[in-house]
Amino acid sequence: MRLKNPEVTCQELIWGDDEEHEQNEMWEEIQMTENKNLEELRNELEQSKQEKIQLEHQIQRKKNQLSYRENFSRKERSHRLIVCGAIFEKYFPVVKDLSEKELSEVLSSVNVTAFGRELDRAIEQMRKEVTE
Question: Model-level pTM?
């Protein structure tokens, strides 16, 4: 085969003219850039999924902490009520034989205001003695 133009290189024969070659190179660059962008997007998606999992775990830990503290507060209150009830029974042993309803009725008929004032005075006196 004879070349019409001896100035034409083998590469030009393969690629055709320079304009077509440039277009092919541009197309390859665009594809590489798109592939790179796709890979970056995939990586970002994976990273976002990992962050989501971490945040879900953080939320669960906070919920557990909240639940623990709420239970702890309830346990403290329950313990305090039991201790106070035991002290009340110690000084008023007759209430041991009463039902909750009977105790409530008896206490509602008693002048608790006067008892409350006496109790406040006694507490105040005790605190003064402790600080002195």
Answer: 0.43
